[in-house]
């Protein structure tokens, strides 16, 4: 069964439409549902249960890269519209623990051939032309930002130095590279600030008084 949204008056495009039918839940932002359908693995004869529909609004979001041999994560959350640049912190966070069945690790026990085979199965319904366009766009993006050369240099440096904490070492290199590309803009008080999330911004006083001690006569 396929479910299409043909109209959504008074809803915003970033609202998430969630539909549950039986044991299957499908959800997507409204802006994507204008062009895509929600698919359920049920024939018409099996749809005897009522459909549960919810409209959700994302108040915070994050992206997390899972690390091999790592179970616990502290994930800061940012405003949904600033998921890429992380310039609007919300003060909210999640502490999570990842458990792999059978004690398997995220990447250490998976072969490269298995990863390629899994990637080939993703979005098999898409056309070959669309896949080629996406691959070309990804290649242009990597070349434009010099990411391939940078990652290769980073791994080479990592192998040479062999730090005790490789992730902390790489994080420091990435932070240094970011500061070189995009230097921080100091405020009038000489400190770097980041705009708070509008949804969680607290009321502040209209003015602040700075007292400067007088120089001795």
Structural summary, described in words:
- By secondary structure, this protein is an alpha+beta fold.
- Helix content is 29%, strand content 17%.
- It has 5 helices and 7 strands, in the order E-E-E-H-E-E-E-E-H-H-H-H.
- The strands form 3 sheets. It has a 3-stranded antiparallel beta sheet with strand order 3-2-5. The protein has a two-stranded antiparallel sheet with strand order 1-4.
- The chain is elongated, with a radius of gyration of 24 Å.
- It starts with a strand and ends in a 36-residue tail after the last helix.
- 4% of the residues are buried.
- About 12% of the residues have low confidence.
Silhouette: elongated
Largest sheet, described in full? 3 strands, antiparallel
How do the strands line up in the largest sheet? 3-2-5
State the helical fraction: 25-40%
Roughly what is the average pLDDT, rounded to an integer? 74
Give the uncertain stretches in residue-range form: 187-195, 198-213
From N to C, what is the helix and strand string? EEEHEEEEHHHH
**Treating each run of at least 4 consecutive H or I residues as one helix, how many helices?**
5
Number of strands: 7
* Ends distance: 86 Å
């Amino acid at each position: 069964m396929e479910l299409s949204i043909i109209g959504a008056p008074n809803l915003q495009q970033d609202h998430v439409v969630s539909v549950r039918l039986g044991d299957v839940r499908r959800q997507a932002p409204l802006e994507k549902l204008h062009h895509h359908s929600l698919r359920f693995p049920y024939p018409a004869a099996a749809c005897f249960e009522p459909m549960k529909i919810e409209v959700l609004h994302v108040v915070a979001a994050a992206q997390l890269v899972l690390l091999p041999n790592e179970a616990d994560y502290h994930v800061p959350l940012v405003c949904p519209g600033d998921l890429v640049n992380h310039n609007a912190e919300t003060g909210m966070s999640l502490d999570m623990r990842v458990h792999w069945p059978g004690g398997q690790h995220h990447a250490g026990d998976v072969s490269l051939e298995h990863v390629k085979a899994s990637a080939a199965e993703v979005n098999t319904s898409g056309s070959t032309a669309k896949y080629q366009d996406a691959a070309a766009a990804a290649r242009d993006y990597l070349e434009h930002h010099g990411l391939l050369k940078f990652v290769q240099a980073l791994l080479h440096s990592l192998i040479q130095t062999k730090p005790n904490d490789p992730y902390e070492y790489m994080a420091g290199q990435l932070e240094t590279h970011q500061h070189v590309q995009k230097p921080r803009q100091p405020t009038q008080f000489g400190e770097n600030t980041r705009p708070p999330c509008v949804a969680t911004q607290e009321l502040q006083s209209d003015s602040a008084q700075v007292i400067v001690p007088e120089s001795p006569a």
